Amino acid sequence: MSHPVADGAAAVFADPKAYTDESRLHATLAHLRVTAPVSLVDVPDFRPFWAITKHADIMAIERDDALFTNSPRPVLMTAEADAQQDAMGISTLIHMDDPQHRVARAVGADWFRPRAMRALKVRVDELAHTFVDRMVEAGGECDFVQEVAVNFPLYVIMSLLGLPESDFPRMLKYTQELFGSDDEELQRGTTKEEQGMALFEMFTYFNELTAARRATPTEDLASAISNARIDGEPLSDIDTVSYYVIIATAGHDTTSATISGGLQALIENPDQLQRLRDDPALMPLATEEMIRWVTPVKEFMRTARADTVVRGVPIAAGESVLLSYVSANRDEDIFVDPFRFDIGRDPNKHIAFGHGVHFCLGAALARMEVTSFFSALIPRLRSIELAGRAEHVATIFVGGLKHLPIRYSLS
């Protein structure tokens, strides 16, 4: 079956508001998977790219990291934002390729291994119960995203880094402004200069933290990053700060989006909520289904190092491809009844954490946080319903719900 190499519907990937209307978004992605699974997108303000919507093609591209590189374009941004980041010299794990990526990833890897996760679980469980208690204190009604979901994972990742609780609100503001730069409610100002200040202020904060941890090392991830050495040399200032930024942001917004989107899915599918209530042993599978359902990281980009072909479509050296995880996680060729929220789905071959050498460093922590929170909430939940309209962040990279008004009764 031949396909066109361009479909106007693929412009959806460059439209932040498209991600605020899930039914329209998924209808568009389903159309693209059938009619133009590899589609050229050439729209104003963005450099052209190829949108990849099928699970199998995304997996193949992720596996071939020698042919498809993260550098120089790891995420979809406007041409102006690309140039701004290049000028700042930002180089996080998602910007790197091997061998540099392998060495840099090792700096933080030990903090996310099973042994470290087991040690952290006590703190995560404690925080989960604390935030469920806060729901009780709220009196049976709250905006679950803003009052619970954004704070719980923030407390976890900030505790891991070893940052003082007094700095948590500031870090929350920075991360929401960075990932919400296309959202009128969350963005910092309306000009690129104003929006760039969030990143600048975050860099300033982490530069000061680096200096403090180098002067007085402590037993936390912040010290591990600040005092890391590669080939005997300390990380440069920009590389150190870039490392902090990826840990602080990726370890926060993705998990809060999964927890809030997961709760919405349980409310809207009461049979699945009851099923989980009746059989708590399903929690690990339910966690995976929430992650698939929400897919907080919408896309990553890769650039072809040499001429190649994807699903019969020629991709030239130097051209970029967008890997739509949102589309892949609803692919009818991979998932039985993909638009059904099924907490017992097994197998669940979602790729919300990516695949290959760039598989999410914090995947185990994210899974633990989701499992801990719902394990604390559901046994105490007597009733729950929506108390208003759920609203999504306008974004083309990372995001989920920004408001989820709920009414509930907890024991």
Describe this structure in words.
The protein has 411 residues and is an alpha+beta fold. It has a single domain, classed as Cytochrome P450 (Cytochrome p450), CATH 1.10.630.10. The protein is built from 16 helices and 14 strands. The strands form 5 sheets. It has a 5-stranded mixed β-sheet with strand order 1-2-10-7-3. β8 and β9 (313-315) form a beta hairpin. The relative contact order is 0.18. The model has no long low-confidence stretch (mean pLDDT 91).
List the helices and strands and how they pair.
Elements (H helix, E strand, L loop, with lengths): L21 H14 L2 E4 L7 E4 L2 H9 L4 E2 L9 H10 L11 H10 L4 H24 L3 E3 H6 L1 H11 L6 H12 L12 H24 L5 H6 L2 E2 L2 E2 L2 H14 L2 H16 L1 H9 L4 H12 L4 E6 L3 E3 L2 E3 L4 E5 H4 L34 H15 L3 E6 L4 E2 L8 E3 L1 E6 L1
Parallel strand pairs: 2-10
Antiparallel strand pairs: 1-2, 3-7, 4-14, 5-6, 7-10, 8-9, 11-14, 12-13
Helix pairs in contact: 5-7, 5-16, 8-9, 9-11, 12-14, 12-16, 14-16
Pfam families: p450
Cofactor: heme
Protein name: Cytochrome P450
Give the tags.
about 400 residues, alpha+beta, Cytochrome p450, 3-stranded antiparallel sheet, 16 helices, 14 strands, about 50% helix
**SSE class:** alpha+beta
Determine Rg (CA atoms, Å). 21 Å
Give, in order, the helices and strands: HEEHEHHHEHHHHHEEHHHHEEEEHHEEEE
Strand order of the largest sheet: 1-2-10-7-3
CATH topology: Cytochrome p450
- CATH superfamily, please? Cytochrome P450
pLDDT averaged over residues: 91
Highest CATH level, the class: Mainly Alpha
Low-confidence stretches: none
Total count of domains: 1
CATH architecture: Orthogonal Bundle
The amount of helix comes to 40-55%
Q: What best-fitting shape do the alpha-carbon axes yield?
A: globular
Note the beta-strand portion: 5-15%
Give the tally of β-strands.
Answer: 14
How far do the termini sit from each other?
A: 57 Å
The largest sheet is: 5 strands, mixed
The number of helical elements comes to 16
Pfam family, one: p450
Cofactor: heme
Keywords: Heme, Iron, Metal-binding, Monooxygenase, Oxidoreductase
InterPro entries: Cyt_P450 (IPR001128), Cyt_P450_B (IPR002397), Cyt_P450_CS (IPR017972), Cyt_P450_sf (IPR036396)
